[in-house]
Every structure is written in C-alpha cells, then in structure tokens.
Known about the structure:
105 residues; alpha+beta; four-stranded mixed sheet
Amino acid sequence: MADLVVHLFGPADGLPSASPYCLKVVWGARLKGLSVESIPFKMRLPAWATRGMLPVAEVKGRQVQDSTEILQALDDAFPDSPALYPREPAARARTLLIEDWADHV
C-alpha cells in the first residue's frame, strides 16, 4: 500500500495532474521520498470529502482535505523523512503565511 493515497484532477501535458494544488501534494510526497497512489477524479469525490474540492488524501488512514493540510499531515505522519515545513514555530508561521498567500494569488 502507498504511503499517500491522493484523489486529484487527472494528468495533463505530461504532469501527474492539471491542478497546481494537486501537484503541490504529489511533489511534496516525492520530496519526502514517499510512495504515492494517485486516483484521478471521475465526477465523484469520496463520501468523506465534504469540502467539494481536490486534492483530498488518505495519510496513514487519516482522511485529509486541502493541499496545505495534506502536506502538514505528511510531515506529522512521516517525521523521519525530509520536513516540508520548518519545525521552529516562528519560521513555520512565516512559511504557512507565504504559502497561503501564494495559494490565493
């Protein structure tokens, strides 16, 4: 079984997904050296995906929605692999602020 099961928009132009948010999750998992099972969206999200947006993922049995929350869950679930976010609280807060800004430009 893969370390990360992610439901995402399908591939496009040789990339694993057409969505930058889905790509963020796939590339984050790859950076951590994790195996990824990608499930392309086919007009129906998993029943537990209540926000109605992709990507959604399962990380060690935990169901997570939103690309940033998925990456944070990967850091929590796999602490021995390279960190995606700084561990120091002030640096982590700055990183999350910049990421949030970049997600909404």
